[in-house]
């Protein structure tokens, strides 16, 4: 018993010591008051940290940067409340949802004059007419990545994925919307279809892929492709850029017959406490030089026209990441679907995954 | 007075039961009767029973969890037994527990590096001339990693029950002419039954709801109930269906507990 | 006889090597000058240098350890009292019910626990951050402690406590000198298991954390989107070595005293 008590006391002493140490560490960081802090909720590693430092220096605000790893997880936290975020970066279909549920507030565009640098083709989109609520941050596409060492005939179109020569070589992306979209496009349907018959046909079509499927994965695909684990992968352009920077045998194609185009955007939640700082930050990130620096760091395509001249020609002329007008015409944005239809997509995809086995 | 003290000691535990077990449980149960539009419905249960997908998934989960449990049990019992014989057994036990303090995701990534197409094992196989094999995304690798993760949770309770056996009992058995094997079967094994059951509970039940490694190592070729719940809560936002599967898991746990329950049947002391 | 000894030692060695293989793999790559875990470039300390100037990361590590130790300590106390309590319950069906309730948190997938705790905390108006994370960790650690302590309690001969009473011991004396030493191994095991659960938890923490508070697992998962940073490998190496040293010190100090003490 004495030994137990001694152990407990020692443990408490250790904990107290650690708390004191931690206090000392964080005290240096957060001396500013709440009105001077800006809380950003963004995807992990989705911003150049030196830009945050620069912003803090320029404006005197203190930035708290928190991260999430899926739109849905982020949404759950915002819906439940209990936390305070001033600026969030969701994807477009989530913005529609947040708008419907009154979770975000209209922007005061006068506070964000740097909007003028954004290319008009990325403004006034279906999911947010007149950019009442959102400002585009990055954009990209869904496409095919392949390893030129492991495939003889590179895939160019979605239908190529069904070729028997790619047996057990493909990595699919673990996302119902994306995989169904591929099947829907090959059958000439909209990626936003709500027609049950079309969806079921798409799932039947997907089943044809099961022989070629090596695995159904998510973010970790980047690591697998970098390490030559698989020959072909379905992925997003931003992830592709990152993989290609490491493994020079990888190439990314956006099928010209059509694909998905997505946007990640700044929005300000209703519960924000420091709207002024949020506006200032958006404006700061739209500054062409900053946008270019950020695009270089993150590797995704920027909607900022002004930033183009600061980026390498080899990047901005690369059709895989800044597709030509012809392909752009065929790209489709996901719309937020009614819950019931959404569920149909998910159920069918789950059925497909169980079938792969 | 003593009853008062008794209450003082047990209050935190009861409080915990009420707030963090019963309340969430009620919540899950309530949720499982909610449809997509927030109305009361039994549709989720109907879906579960009617669609072959979920039944197949349940069957798969139980089967894999069973295999994982058997594998860990076979590996763990000798380990626990050997360590219990050592003089510095605390130290060895700590060595067994320590790997669990390294983040799970990191260890999984390490396994990917080891099992991958160009990983250590395949490099070795190529080196000795066998040639590379597909190791990742197979049932075998999935179960290997799952067993790896669960191992300490099986070893610990078994070890505890072995240590609790008084050496005099074993000596008595040996003195009475029993062989080592007889002693093990007739004395040690029955006395460690509690530990084995605790280990099975600690491994089988969480194995039903493994997720993450089903995707990272199993490449989603193995889909457990846990994976489905994860998806319903985080990706598809269908909390009703997710909760329904949760209720099924709770029921599965009840069954396991009934099967491994020994109170009343065991030796009275 | 001797052969059996060496055989069992070899078996243990093989198992331990297998258990540590992935960890050594991580450690090995923490010294690579590259940025990924495929293909060792050449030896470098750069990930360690990056780690030691990363105050945010160090602070997160401290948070993680503080939470883990506090949660393990408190849940061990509550869990032990719970195990004793369960054994005390005379009514068999009722005891079974409590046990079932106890185990529910162990079977529930982390996501369900996390989501229901989140709803619960916001309902009560508890601010998300250190306290909500600590409370959740204590909550999901308790059942594992009970599970570890209960077999010990069951093995505790009733006659022993009765004997203590016969010898004129008070309740407290019987408790502190007979019961506690008797279940000490279970308590220890429970504490370490609780520590393990707390250190490793991602899903529950993710839901109930907020307002700038973060733990290592949450940080690692959100960084994993870009592939894991070798700085994390360096961090794991440091933490692993520290725990190895701690275990060794503990071993040296707990074994030294005469065999009379302890068990």
TrEMBL record, chain A:
Task: Give yes or no: UniProt keyword Transport.
Answer: yes
A Pfam family annotated for this chain is SBP_bac_8
**Cell compartments where the protein resides:** Periplasm
From the UniProt record, list the coiled-coil ranges.
Answer: none
Keywords recorded for this protein, A-Z? Periplasm, Signal, Transport
Q: Which InterPro entries match?
A: SBP (IPR006059), Sperm_putr-bd (IPR001188)
What Gene3D superfamilies would the database entry show?
Answer: Periplasmic binding protein-like II
Q: Does the keyword Signal apply?
A: yes
What is the protein name given in its UniProt record? ABC transporter substrate-binding protein
From TrEMBL, chain B:
Q: Which InterPro entries match?
A: MetI-like, MetI-like_sf
**What family name appears in the similarity comment?**
Belongs to the binding-protein-dependent transport system permease family. CysTW subfamily.
State its location(s).
Cell membrane
Q: Which residues cross the membrane?
A: 12-30, 62-84, 91-115, 135-159, 195-218, 238-259
- Pfam families with a match to the protein in the record: BPD_transp_1
Q: In the UniProt record, does the keyword Transport occur?
A: yes
Stretches assigned to the ABC transmembrane type-1 domain: 58-260
Instruction: Please give the Gene3D superfamilies that the UniProt record associates with this protein.
Output: MetI-like (1.10.3720.10)
Q: How does it sit in the membrane?
A: Multi-pass membrane protein
User: Record keywords: Secreted included?
Assistant: no
Protein known as? ABC transporter permease
Keywords noted in UniProt: Cell membrane, Membrane, Transmembrane, Transmembrane helix, Transport
PANTHER family registered for this protein in UniProt: INNER MEMBRANE ABC TRANSPORTER PERMEASE PROTEIN YDCU-RELATED, INNER MEMBRANE ABC TRANSPORTER PERMEASE PROTEIN YDCU-RELATED-RELATED
Q: Could you tell me which CDD domains the record lists for this protein?
A: TM_PBP2 (cd06261)
TrEMBL record, chain C:
Gene3D superfamilies the UniProt entry points to = MetI-like
**Chief subcellular location:** membrane
Q: What are the subcellular locations of this protein?
A: Cell membrane
One Pfam family for this entry, by name? Answer: BPD_transp_1
Transmembrane segments annotated in the record for this chain: 12-31, 60-86, 98-124, 130-150, 232-251
Indicate the segments forming the ABC transmembrane type-1 domain, all copies: 61-250
What the entry lists under InterPro entries is as follows:
Bact_Polyamine_Transport, MetI-like, MetI-like_sf
**Membrane topology, from the record:** Multi-pass membrane protein
Q: Which SUPFAM superfamilies match?
A: MetI-like
Coiled-coil annotated spans: none
Q: Which UniProt keywords apply?
A: Cell membrane, Membrane, Transmembrane, Transmembrane helix, Transport
Per the similarity annotation, which family is this? Belongs to the binding-protein-dependent transport system permease family. CysTW subfamily.
Indicate what this protein is called per its UniProt record.
Answer: ABC transporter permease
